[in-house]
Amino acid sequence: GESVGLHLPTLSVQEGDNSIINCAYSNSASDYFIWYKQESGKGPQFIIDIRSNMDKRQGQRVTVLLNKTVKHLSLQIAATQPGDSAVYFCAEIPRGGADGLTFGKGTHLIIQP
Amino acid sequence: GAVVSQHPSRVICKSGTSVKIECRSLDFQATTMFWYRQFPKKSLMLMATSNEGSKATYEQGVEKDKFLINHASLTLSTLTVTSAHPEDSSFYICSAREGGPYSNQPQHFGDGTRLSIL
């Protein structure tokens, strides 16, 4: 079936560096994408979202890029901090917005001191 | 911001026990809430969509008689794991979305319930 997946399970970056987390999706009908951050033992925390009529959206220290041609989504985190260590999931809503989210596998971001 | 509260955060019980988990939207009304299940080091998998005032919609492979969902008000949905067995042990997470079924708002998640069946 169609699914959202991530390229890398673990990403290790130095504190202060920028990090890029990637996500590939396969459902071309999806029109809403969200990045979530999940810390150990907690629920996912909303980071940023983007709709299919956009290709870039910026938040505080985070940028999401959407490439619909190759069905690719990325999350850029600028000047990473120790508190950024977590698992990051991309998620999509595949059918018009009324449904629950389809999550990708997740990337564990590790910030090295 | 929107806050979703989930209770309890952790449950340990014997096999055969039924366990109820509550999900509340604290500062907004949610016509629709969602229940997810997460195994260790895995992603979240949608179990069911909880609709206020109507029956829940279950994903394929999820037993509706095993996982009973009630959404009696615009701020509360409950998931009851009936006659739980060790294979039901998991991290259960709920989410809620502001607005109606087709709202453009993101889902906000509770902090999950770790269920351990002995």
- Give the overall form of chain A: globular
Portion in helices of chain B = under 10%
**How many β-strand runs of chain B?**
11
The arrangement of helices and strands of chain A along the chain is EEEEEEEEEEE
The backbone outline of chain B, from C-alpha atoms, is globular
Average pLDDT metric of chain B: 92
**Would you identify the regions of chain A where 5 or more consecutive residues have pLDDT less than 50?**
none
Percent range for β-strand residues of chain A:
over 45%
Structural class of chain A: mainly beta
Count of DSSP helices of chain A? Answer: 0
Main sheet properties of chain A: 6 strands, mixed
Write the H/E string of chain B, N to C: EEEEEEEEEEE
- How many strands in all of chain A? 11
Strand content of chain B: over 45%
How far apart, in Å, are the first and last alpha carbons of chain A? Answer: 40 Å
For the record, give the distance between the C-alpha atoms at the N and C termini of chain B, rounded to a whole number.
Answer: 37 Å
Task: Indicate the mean pLDDT of chain A.
Answer: 88
Radius of gyration of chain A, taken over Cα atoms and rounded to an integer in Å = 13 Å
Radius of gyration over C-alpha positions of chain B, nearest whole angstrom:
13 Å
> Would you identify the regions of chain B where 5 or more consecutive residues have pLDDT less than 50?
none
